[in-house]
Amino acid sequence: MDFVRLIQLVLRHKWLILAVVSVATTATWFGVRFRGAAYQATATLMPQEQALQTLDGVASLSNSLGAQDMRNISLQMRKSRMESLIALMMSPRVLGLLIERLGIQATPADLERLIQVKQVTSEVIRIQATAPTPEMAADLANGLASTFVQFYGDLSTTAVSESTKLLNEREAQARKELEACKTAVEKYKASRQISSLSEQLSGTLNRLNAVRQAREGTSAQLAELEAQLREVEAQLARTPEVVRVEGARWLWKISYPQYGVTSRELVLPVGRRVRFDVTATDVLHSFWIPAFRMKIDAVPGMTTRVFITPTATGSFEDNFHFRLQCAELCGLGHNLMRSPVRVVDPAEFEAWVARVKAP
Fold first, then answer.
1. For a pLDDT cut of 90, what percent of the chain falls above it?
2. Cβ–Cβ < 8 Å for 111, 98
3. Virtual CA dihedral for 208, 209, 213, 217, nearest 10 degrees?
4. CA distance 192 to 264
């Protein structure tokens, strides 16, 4: 009887029950429609090691910085690089490319509310998308990952192409200037009838040997020739000290070919003429010593030269301007690319060379 009464009650209020079910169904649909989606999809992205390089090439700085300091700096720079990649991934330009790729009616601001990008580990980025359907959520997550990879690759290729073009233009200009300098030097030598020191020495030795072999010269003539020989030898002694400097991100490699010495600091003898052979191994750098008021580009694949004669002693400990500093923005470690400079007496310079060469 109770079951029959229940059936009768349902039939009596069937329109009311149908209305309640319809309202509940409609409310549920509108809630999902206006509150946003309930479906999520996730994609992961592991940037290539080149994109995360921070302080590569500065390992030799451990002489002045401790190993723990170097690790902390590397981790901080790596974290900063990851944050920059995430900001670039969520930029309107990349989101606009994603919208165009998926063919959806939305703005970059709309996608910013649907997509979250976070760094999971030091090497992994997670992309989480929320959308009304699971298919759309997956398209947003996976599409953003692939779109960003393509965008970053095109960006890197463009940067390399522009850098190569700039280097080629500067190399061509440098070659023109070098040829002009050579021409000017030859004209100056021709006008002053200047010969090389080796030719002067060879001529003097030949004259001295001729006099000694013929035994016709007087002691005064021999003394004059010997004086000329000593003068030529003194000129040879004033031949510039050669210092080769190579720039690499982010350090300077300093070598003295005449002595077979390599050093992290630049040590020069006071009063002696110095020739710097400057080059670079990766990107464009700039060789700058503030104390000497001298600067020249360090270009990969090309050697540039500059001459100076230090006239006073000094050191980085006493004067901050006694430093070799890169003056061309060359990357994240640009501000670390410097080496101390010392100008010492010739005797102290010779002692330093012997000390560095000692095993």
1. 14
2. yes
3. -10
4. 41
Looking at domain 240-357, does it have CATH number 2.60.40.420? yes
CA–CA separation, 309 and 205 (whole Å): 30
Quote the DSSP letter at residue 120.
Answer: -
Listed by start position, the domains of the chain span 33-160, 195-236, 240-357
Q: What is the pTM of this model?
A: 0.36
Same fold across 33-160 and 240-357: no
Q: Is 282 exposed, middle or buried (0-12, 13-18, 19+ CB in 10 A)?
A: middle
Maximum CA extent, the chain: 157
**Is 322 in contact with 314 (CB distance < 8 Å)?**
yes
| Cβ neighbour number for residue 322 with a 10 Å cutoff | 20
| Parallel, antiparallel or unpaired: strands 261-263 and 266-269 | unpaired
DSSP 301-343: T--EEEEE---S-EETTT-TTSEEEE-S--STTGGG-EEEEEE
User: What are the tokens at 33?
Assistant: 């429609």
Fold of 33-160: Bacterial polysaccharide co-polymerase-like (3.30.1890)
Mean pLDDT of 256-277: 91
pLDDT at 54: 44
In tens, the pLDDT along 156-172 reads: 666 556 666 777 787 78
DSSP letter string, 200-219? HHHHHHHHHHHHHHHT-S-H
Residue pair 312/327 in contact by the 8 Å Cβ criterion? no
Q: Rg of the chain's alpha carbons, rounded to an integer?
A: 37
pLDDT of residue 233 exceeding 70, the answer is no
Q: Is 142 helix (H, G, I), strand (E, B) or coil?
A: helix
Which residue, chain included where needed, has tokens 């003429």?
A: 273
Helix extents (H) in the chain: 2-12, 14-35, 49-52, 67-89, 92-102, 108-114, 134-192, 197-214, 219-237, 346-357
| DSSP tag of 59 | G
